[in-house]
Amino acid sequence: MSPKDFFMQQSRTTGSKGLGSAPRMAMAFVPALFAATPAAAATLMVGPGQTYALPSQAAAAARAGDTVIITPSTYHDCAVWTADNLTIEASAHGVVLSATVCQNKAIFVIPANNVTVRGVTFTGAKSTDGNGAGIRAEGTNLMVDDSTFTYDQDGILAEPNPASTIIITGSTFIHDGACIGECAHGIYIGAAALLQVDHSRFYATQKGHHIKSRAASTQISDCDIEDGPTGTASYLVDIPNGGELSITDTVLEKGPRAENHSTAISIGEEGVRNSTTQLTIAGNIFTNNGHATVFVTNDTTAAARLSANTLLGNAATPLKGPGTAQ
Fold first, then answer.
1. Whole-prediction pTM
2. How big, in percent rounded to 5, are the helix, strand and coil portions of the chain?
3. How many domains does the chain have?
């Protein structure tokens, strides 16, 4: 099974629609990513009274294939994870990593490959560059499951990696984003093979976009992406370089304080670099509580296909650019 297929399968089997549902316990860990994972992989316990008091200590000790279990507490700590094929998981609700970043980048910096993070809350990540993240993904393949990101400059920031699959499932992003120099976002995914986001909530993002993706393929399903009354985000979804796109069964809302009134979903406005043949926006509910806007602006030459979407609230043009809206 390829890394992409593995991560897609795990997203379907572990993702939860109930935002804030209990994280999976230690016995529910997903199978090892690859058959080559060492048989002697260890379980490292983190927390008060455990072998490792801090996540950073476990990160320094972890080896390929290990599982790191973090017990509930608030940790003013950050960690750089360099071992491949890790699972980093909360044992129960209440694991909070707060306001400390490593390498002036993120609370968790992950240069390792094939890493799963589950059940952890990241809050208050800030860097002097203005893009401090809850998680900074620098390796190949990352899954984030049932995790929460609040008041971070970037919730998740993924470095460009055309081989990488990023899966975000059952997670919550509240009041992330910033524009200090260049803008930061709810999530910002650089050039990747695939970004898949499902069963997740983005709310009250500030300044940047809720979701910005330069991936070759972006799939968003069964999510809530809303400005609310205080959010000042620009776009709800930004696909600046085109690419295959599917947004389905998702609730979207543009609020009265949104800083960009032009559109909710933007495709290709920075120049189309990715192969773009299929743009599907179907079965969504969009409410415009702000100024007159466009639901989907398509700056590619591919035909966007909008179907069975419900547009509510103030005036919204369904589609600007090539395609059909039914």
1. 0.90
2. 5, 45, 50
3. 1
